[in-house]
Design brief:
It is a single chain. By secondary structure, this protein is α/β, with parallel strands linked by helices. Helices cover about 40% and strands about 10% of the residues. It has 15 helices and 13 strands. The strands form three sheets. The protein has an eight-stranded mixed β-sheet with strand order 3-10-9-8-7-4-5-6, sandwiched between helices. A three-stranded antiparallel β-sheet has the order 11-13-12, covered by helices on one side. It is globular. It starts with about 20 loop residues before the first helix and ends with a helix.
């Protein structure tokens, strides 16, 4: 006796214009037909070719839907006898699926390209054609060993290039064995905290200071000691009196984040003396030292560290682009083995291709030329925006042209709290940051941090006018 012919399912309504893929629609309609009993247990389904013709879709679309139904146990393949609805389906399997609770996900900020966004280099000044060529050259040179897991410490040629660059640019004499390539500053911080500290240890952190560093320390169960900052930088004397037992100090001595002031030479020496006396350590976050516009560039704290107490962290996020996710950490000589072990356990290294491209970018002299060009353009953009803001606000704004860095600190004494001003600015598609949001215990006053790197001199007047209109409402 011949088996009954498979049902005609051409009436399954599909919606070609729907955002749901056709394969998902076919799967859903078949599953619904099984759940409602229109396709009974043991009933034979049309062949994939036949159903594809009925629905006017590609055969592969039906194949994928059948495969998914089979994987979930709704249908069973019987070879030459075709595909049939599973005979042992129970009520629970046929019940409509409960709506799933939304899962936590990371939503990247939508304001990266808004005017005044801080922390970004000038995207229009990046030498894309040159970079593309270096990446292509690095790809052509990938041999069998470089297709394997990378050195967790970083590509040797990049570590050599970084050591050479730091000697010339920052006066830091280090061996490449002390240089570790990281996935940015947060990864460097994780290495230092993980190797040096135990939960409950106390850490000095500038106040106001870098908010992500504070969050990382708190997540690692460290006791954060917010240390006030004045015109000379971190107040070391205040910190020694009140938090002498700290195990680590995290500082931005070149341009304090967010106030922009350099750590004075007496304070630098006092900080190093404390670290030596207390058998403690210092993490120097030299996040934007390459960009200094007025006077002599402040030296790196690591360059005057004669007792090897300083971990030095740098990043390519501010000099090349943050999407690269590459930075570096220079460690004291006695810590190379411990940090090597940390790298092996935490990350197993960074992408070889990007590391090779950056190494060539530095070794061929492109990096130094790129930085010189950026310094000139940033000085122009900072001056143009300063002039435009003063023209718009007059005596209602207080700001000084920064000695270095990537942001202007603007204070508006008559316009209200900085958090409210930031909300008004964001409503107009502008992305400044509130100074007060960077402070924990020590009030730094009200002000806005205005990134200027991606505002050209031609755009400065229009952007300043938009800010004036936003916060004057």
């Amino acid at each position: 006796m011949n088996p009954p012919p498979p049902p005609q399912l051409g009436a399954l309504p599909l919606e070609p214009a729907s955002a749901s893929p056709l394969q998902e629609q076919v799967y859903g309609r078949l599953r619904q037909a099984i759940a409602e009993g229109r396709l009974a247990p043991g009933e034979r389904l049309p062949s994939t070719r036949s159903l594809a013709a009925q629905l006017n879709v590609a055969r592969g679309t039906v194949d994928a839907a059948y495969g998914r139904l089979a994987g979930e146990g709704y249908v069973v393949g019987r070879g030459a006898a075709g595909t049939v609805v599973a005979a042992d389906l129970n009520a629970a399997a046929l019940a409509p699926r409960a709506a799933r609770a939304p899962t936590a996900s990371y939503a990247p900020p939508d304001d990266y390209l808004w005017s005044f966004r801080g922390g970004l280099p000038a995207l229009d000044l990046f030498p894309r054609v040159l970079w593309t060529g270096l990446v292509a050259r690095a790809a052509r040179r990938l041999d069998a060993p470089r297709f394997c897991y990378p050195d967790p410490r970083g590509l040797q040629e990049l570590r050599v290039a970084i050591a050479g660059y730091l000697l010339v640019s920052r006066g830091i004499a280090c061996d490449p064995s002390q240089v570790f390539v990281t996935g940015g500053y947060q990864a460097a911080l994780q290495h230092v905290v993980g190797r040096l500290l135990r939960p409950g240890d106390e850490v000095w952190l500038e106040d106001p200071g870098y908010r992500l560093a504070r969050r990382a320390l708190e997540a690692a169960q460290m006791r954060v000691a917010p240390i006030p900052v004045d015109a000379s930088g971190l107040d070391v004397g205040w910190a020694r009196q009140r938090h002498a037992a700290a195990r680590l100090a995290i500082v931005t001595p070149g341009h304090q984040s967010p106030l922009g002031v350099p750590l004075s030479l007496p304070r630098r020496q006092a900080l190093l003396d404390w670290a030596s006396d207390a058998d403690a350590w210092v993490l120097e976050d030299d996040y934007d030292s390459e960009f200094h516009y007025i006077g002599r560039k402040p030296p790196a704290l690591k360059s005057i560290d004669r007792r090897d107490r300083v971990f030095y962290a740098g990043s390519f996020s501010k000099t090349l682009f943050p999407g690269l996710r590459l930075g570096y950490l220079v460690v004291p000589v006695n810590w190379t083995a411990a940090v090597t072990n940390s790298c092996e356990l935490l990350c197993r290294g960074q992408s070889t291709l990007e590391q090779a491209a950056v190494a060539a970018f530095i070794a061929d002299g492109h990096y130094a030329r790129h930085l010189r060009r950026m310094r000139l353009r940033y000085a122009e953009r900072s001056a143009a925006l300063t002039q435009a803001l003063v023209g718009q606000f007059g005596s209602g704004i207080q700001l000084a042209r920064p000695e270095g860095g990537l942001t202007l600190l603007a204070r508006f004494p008559t316009f209200g709290p900085d958090t409210e001003l930031v909300e008004r600015a964001r409503a107009r598609g502008l992305a400044p940051s509130a100074l007060s949001a960077h402070a924990v215990r020590h009030d730094a006053g009200s002000g806005m941090l205005l990134g200027f790197t991606n505002i050209t001199p031609e755009q400065a007047q229009q952007v300043a006018q938009r800010l004036h209109e936003a916060i004057s409402e």
